[in-house]
Please model this.
Amino acid sequence: MAVTIKDVAREARVSVASVSRALNGHDTVTEDTRQRIAGVATRLRYVPHSGARSLITRRTQTIGALLPDLHGEFFSELIRGIDVAARARGLHLLVSSSHGDASEAAAALRAMQGRVDGMLVMSPHVDASFLRDQLLADLPMVLMNTPLETEHYSIMNVDNYGGAFAMVRHLIGCGHRRIALIAGPEHNYDAAERLRGYCAAMARFAPMVSTQVMQGDFTEESGNRAGRELLALKVRPQAVFAANDIMAAGCLYALKEADVRVPEDIALTGFDDIPIARFVSPPLTTVRTRITDLGQRALERLVQTLEEPATTQVSVQTLECEIVIRASCGATTSTEA
Amino acid sequence: MAVTIKDVAREARVSVASVSRALNGHDTVTEDTRQRIAGVATRLRYVPHSGARSLITRRTQTIGALLPDLHGEFFSELIRGIDVAARARGLHLLVSSSHGDASEAAAALRAMQGRVDGMLVMSPHVDASFLRDQLLADLPMVLMNTPLETEHYSIMNVDNYGGAFAMVRHLIGCGHRRIALIAGPEHNYDAAERLRGYCAAMARFAPMVSTQVMQGDFTEESGNRAGRELLALKVRPQAVFAANDIMAAGCLYALKEADVRVPEDIALTGFDDIPIARFVSPPLTTVRTRITDLGQRALERLVQTLEEPATTQVSVQTLECEIVIRASCGATTSTEA
DNA sequence: ATCGCAAATGAAAACGTTTACATTCGCCCC
DNA sequence: GGGGCGAATGTAAACGTTTTCATTTGCGAT
Model:
């Protein structure tokens, strides 16, 4: 039923070897016969059986992406970045997202084994012990956004620390001193790094001012709660730095409800630059992370490992963030209505 | 290097046939030997070569998703829906997104041929002539969100028409009569269906009122422009229905800038229920489409076609939308501050 | 004890490629 | 004219599975 290389060979009156050579662009075939074979192949709509091919070449031309249960923009931008980079190299992309715990992640990983040449892994459940247990033979992998330090795999991280540091520096540049942080969930790597950046920048630029950290968990609701707590303090901060945009939005509503003006009374900033950041009022000053680049660079790194396993050293790369200044930080109040 | 079924067989002192049977859960193998084989397999970290398997079973256990160059929430929700449904059935997901034109889409489709058991296709470039040209052998496919009518493939659509119809009915229920539509791009299927729903509902519920359609293109900027045009009319509409949320947001800013109150002076609604809809003020009444369900149902449909090719009839299914009522339509003004 | 039968296991073919090796062919050079 | 050589092509093995068919084994019935 399906047309195979033999059908093409028969029709073109050559051996299967010649068909293979012609179609794979080897140089030892006459231009004449190449033409003939190519013609027959398209006429017959021949498409090679990838399984048979990978059986012998030991390559699948596919890379896998293991992603956490991620919502929204972040997820799609990441996949887009990976996909674009993969396509540019003629690679296919096998995705497995949304697994909730370590065992699910492990299952997904095992299932992908043997179907891919390498993997891009971003998962909070993939930690040191996970990797030890799985000990994934010699499947090349690049880990994304992980606190792990491993000598086996390259790592591609977002500079959460640097972004937070820069944001605090910016706020201090705006004249604010008492800057509170609404932190992310406790065991989240991104959250921890942002917290670290906040602390470091405070220590550096406002050493006399004590830090103030409210606990949040990256949800809008926790941001709202933190906002109300802030308002109840006897000494209110001059600026609030939420560890992500959605908490900033939640906090913003708490402030608005209490008729506290942003940024006049309290400045407010976020992290991530999700689309909503532009739409709240005042628009949110935030930290932009180029997620698409993250995916793209990670894939490129993986490909390099694939193509030159010998010369490629394991590396840890960090992707810069940039600060997006809008009205909520008080730096551009002059443009406010 | 890689451990094969032979290694397992040797180690377990059985034939490869028995290993295959044991691991695939056939019933003709002693519980005793099954245990032994399973033990050896896990100890050796044996993972079957998918290529070799698919070579003989003629199944890849993989389905492909061909998606347009989509940004944001929609994209990720769709993939999530597909992925979850696929995993539930032990299927893998091969994605190819972001192709800009028909030839790119065709290339992506061809590249996937032979690697997948079936495909989920959503692409504006996949039209009647495209399918005719490609004539994809007998690869089962399900088309998503397409105006196409074909006897070869099942189709899964979002009820854009019904959603728009219901929204207009709702606005009329709120007491509005002169309702303007900010339409989407001209050759977009979603846009056309929403326009059709608007017109039908107007004709049905407000037959004496003339319709008013402003041209937009699904961008914030076009919504903003349309908003300013509306304000310049000698007779302003009582309500504006933007064919997507992002245009509604753009329009909202135009109204705000002109100190027109929403919903008191003009009501405003959107379509899609993107996250931003909740965050603008007033929060946007809109039409929610369950994108995750779309992906999920489409995959389920495909699986059915795969498993029972004979009995499964080609079908066109339409996925309901629901109206999400927030403050911007004037129905809940009483809850406003 | 022998036969027959079912259950368990093994041997080998088949799937569609790629590629190392063998073969053919035409041609140039002595 | 024959030897040698390089280019083009063909032959066949190999990849790792699944599955058909054959074989062995154990056991109950005669």
Summary: The longest helix of chain B spans residues 72-88. The first strand of chain B starts at residue 62 and ends at 68. Chain B is about 45% helix and 15% strand.
